[in-house]
Request: fold
Amino acid sequence: MHNSEPVDAIISVAALHHLPDFWKMIGLKRLARMVKIGGKVYIKDVVFSFDLARYKSCIKAFIQLMVNRTEPGMKWDLETHFRQEYSTLGWIMEGMLERAGLAIEMADYKDNFFAVYLCTKKGE
Reply:
């Protein structure tokens, strides 16, 4: 619990995808409470932005892309991620950010599986 004065900015990188959406929302509301009105929240995380009708081929292509960028052992880690982690769809994440009291200034989706958000805390 943050009991100090609100801060100017908060950065979250690759943390939220470990939480189901309910706890993700609780976390986003807590982050929003910690930042000053007009303060910035930067989030970079695993967020799905691919067409759901093509989810099998998108996931397979992404796993292969990451294996090519890293090493063959990464394949098992990524397959495990898709079975056990709690990544969210982009349109749901945007709704959660807004509902947490954050205005999305920028949303950038990469490789159908990553997102960067720059948000500003709304006035109360």
User: Anything to note?
Assistant: Residues 7-48+86-121 form a domain with the Rossmann fold fold (CATH 3.40.50.150).
